[in-house]
């Protein structure tokens, strides 16, 4: 799969709301007044700041709406520029460039039951999913984990929704009786539900470990990372990437990524997160075996060894031939 350029859209910020401590929502409307492209639950958009920084944010409004996109952004204490810009510099009326919606976290609409687990800002794609499932009359249950009520975005929206009875809140600073027993919950729904989860790295690792321990079927497990923890290259060897279209061979040194090596050689591949989370840089492998270090390919996709994320992954073979 060669990288595909995203359609660029111009939108303006029409409303900003503080949804919780360090979390704000941003309502974006088309600058030209034309309907925005349709999207499905679980979709995200790329947002380009005035400094040229690109970040991905999940859409959390009703998918049937074409007059606006709604995103929510957590102000990161160690922001690399994206969340800091959104919280501190963006003002109502300002214009932004965004991509058309993309979805690597889609609902399985034929699932008999869906189990949604949201950690912190991970509520954004799952809120849209919950509303979609409710509108279809599908059976589901959502558990929303946060550090405190003050850090729980969209609490009122959920409490006042028609599916409020299907949502359970869990807060780190509340009484122990309301804490989520993750293992017990997953055992209860094992083999009966499709599982969706999103949140910070620690939350993701805990759910993934529990899922693996219980041997949930891979096709019933769906997840999306907001931030990655790519494996360190450590003392791994250098390797080569060959460009199939030209035959050029580029050496990837131990202290650089394949994306950096390709860029230095004049081969530009679209990228956004550079953490193996977003999937923007995914490239097809024609020969060789990748050492997958990403968080966006499914286990089945990784096992096939025909896709490669040059921003973070490396190679088990001495050379990878890439379809570029």
TrEMBL record:
Pfam families, A to Z: Fer2
Residue stretches making up the 2Fe-2S ferredoxin-type domain: 239-324
PANTHER family attached to this UniProt entry: CARNITINE MONOOXYGENASE REDUCTASE SUBUNIT (PTHR47354:SF1), NADH OXIDOREDUCTASE HCR (PTHR47354)
Name of the protein in its database record: Vanillate O-demethylase ferredoxin subunit
Source domain of life: Bacteria
The organism's taxonomic lineage, starting at the top: Bacteria, Pseudomonadati, Pseudomonadota, Betaproteobacteria, Burkholderiales
All copies of domain FAD-binding FR-type, residue ranges: 6-108
InterPro entries linked to this entry: 2Fe-2S_ferredoxin-like_sf, 2Fe-2S_ferredoxin-type, 2Fe2S_fd_BS, Beta-grasp_dom_sf, FAD-bd_FR_type, FNR_nucleotide-bd, MRET, Riboflavin_synthase-like_b-brl
Organism: Ottowia thiooxydans
Alphabetically ordered keywords of this record: 2Fe-2S, Flavoprotein, Iron, Iron-sulfur, Metal-binding, Oxidoreductase
């Amino acid at each position: 799969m060669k990288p595909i350029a995203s359609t660029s859209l111009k939108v303006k910020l029409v409303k900003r709301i503080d949804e919780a401590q360090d979390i704000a929502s941003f309502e974006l409307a088309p600058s030209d007044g034309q309907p925005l492209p349709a999207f499905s639950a679980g979709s995200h958009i790329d947002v380009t700041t005035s400094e040229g920084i690109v970040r991905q944010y999940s859409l959390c409004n009703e998918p049937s709406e074409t007059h606006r996109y709604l995103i929510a952004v957590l102000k990161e204490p160690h922001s690399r520029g994206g969340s800091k810009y959104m919280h501190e510099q963006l003002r109502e009326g300002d214009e932004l460039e965004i991509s058309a919606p993309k979805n690597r976290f889609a609902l399985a609409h034929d699932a008999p039951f869906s189990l949604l687990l949201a950690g912190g800002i991970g509520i954004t794609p799952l809120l849209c999913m919950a509303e979609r499932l409710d509108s279809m009359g599908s059976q589901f249950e959502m558990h929303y984990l946060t550090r405190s009520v003050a850090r729980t975005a969209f609490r009122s929206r959920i409490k006042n929704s028609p599916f409020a009875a299907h949502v359970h809140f869990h807060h780190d600073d509340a009484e122990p009786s309301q804490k989520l027993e993750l293992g017990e919950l997953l055992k209860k729904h094992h083999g009966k539900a499709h599982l969706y989860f999103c949140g910070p790295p620690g939350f993701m690792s805990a759910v993934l470990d529990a899922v693996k321990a219980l041997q949930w079927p891979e096709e019933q497990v769906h997840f999306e990372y907001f931030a990655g923890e790519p494996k360190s290259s450590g003392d791994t060897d250098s390797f080569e990437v060959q460009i199939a279209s030209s035959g050029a061979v580029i050496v990837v040194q131990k202290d650089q990524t394949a994306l950096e090596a390709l860029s230095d050689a004049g081969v530009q591949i679209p990228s956004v997160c550079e953490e193996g989370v977003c999937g923007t840089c995914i490239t097809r492998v024609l020969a060789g075996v990748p050492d997958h270090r990403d968080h966006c390919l499914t286990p089945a996709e990784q096992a096939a060894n025909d896709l490669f994320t040059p921003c973070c992954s490396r190679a088990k073979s001495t050379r990878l031939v890439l379809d570029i």
